[in-house]
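Reagents: none. Just compute today. Putative colanic acid biosysnthesis UDP-glucose lipid carrier transferase.
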Amino acid sequence: MKYKAGRYSKYIKPMNYVIDLCIINTLALLLPINFVQPYLFLAYLSVAWVIISFKTEFYEVQRYAKFTRVLTLIFQQFVFFFLVLYAFIGFFKQPNMSRLALAEFFAATFVLISSMKIFTYVLLLRYRAFFKGNIRRVVVLGDNKKIQQLIDVFNTRLEFGYDFRKQFSLHDKYEPGECFRYIVEHDIDEIYCSVADMKDHELSELIDFADNNMKQVKFIPDNKNIFSKKLKFEYYDYIPILSLRDIPLDDPLNAFMKRFFDLLFSLLVIVFLLSWLTPLIALIIKLESDGPVFFRQRRHGMNSREFYCYKFRSMAMTSDADQKQATKGDMRITRIGKFIRKTSIDELPQFYNVFLGQMSVVGPRPHMVKHTNLYGQQIDKYMVRHFVKPGITGLAQTRGYRGEIEAESDIINRVKFDIFYIENWSLALDIKIVGQTVINAVRGEEKAY
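Predicted 3D structure written out:
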């Protein structure tokens, strides 16, 4: 049985708002929080939840969104909700409110709303795939490799809810009138067309038709470099402006989330790992060779500012330690140095750099000042890496581009992965990279020397 496309979809978001607000208010009344002004507290929570969800786009989950997107939204929403919840005590002078009951309220709210959101996400996927509900009827204009890939997505990813109806070629036999009649007669919801296959006047004609008939039109970019980038569209007064690079971490909310993750993660490592591991590693280093326990090296960070990057010393001290990169079979590496470099233990002191705000847990790896000056002149777009804080690990490192740069292709590919990370940052991506780094460290890596 097929249901009319979008028949009830406009009610999904309002219903989710209402359900979540009911959960919040019901739990607040049931739990012994001991508030003096219940109406003030309930109104405060409700307004705060709506404002936070608007800012984090908590209810903006597109049909093609990945599950990691849902988890990221949940994490962002509840971090801010936690802060706002406990801020009520100070804002409204409520010393008698039970902190423990507030924690129980937060935990219960987190579990119930998170479960509801995940359940709704999975339910909609199943609903579209098996019952053909909440669908969008689509046609495609064009005939090239990207178009065929898009059609394959429509036909195989049934959970997205796209009902592919027809493909129109944009070559000699293309008749706009025939295409437009088909769209109207078959009540098509969305039109996808290839920019590469259409002439300017055809694009204008299609846009005018879509506007006049209340149809959504979406474009598949061609292979020109400008369209392969993640473009940012803005208005200066009434003038449309395209920016070639949109950096997610320029958004204050994203920057706060990343910094919060960095602080929390680095603090956990410092307290529960480095607190007992540092004295042990220090003793072994001192017993094997003369010199300091920690090795510090000047590197370039965000906006090319220099800072001292810390490591456990893994080599014998030499005069050119700040200039020469470690190589395979390097005679300077000590016996304990081979072990801690192989397992990446030597990098752990950089969590102090993270805690101090000089680095991030995940980001482009910082290079020696000498190498930054060199590659900045030789490698195209190398300096883009410095738009964000450098990281202990990064996307390039999890893809095999870590350690010694043996060929120009190594640094070129490293820069490509770093720029992709900068332009596509998300908290879920950071967590994924951290997990892959841990797996790689356990397995051992070929270039970890």
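The first strand starts at residue 136 and ends at 141.
Action item: order primers for follow-up constructs.
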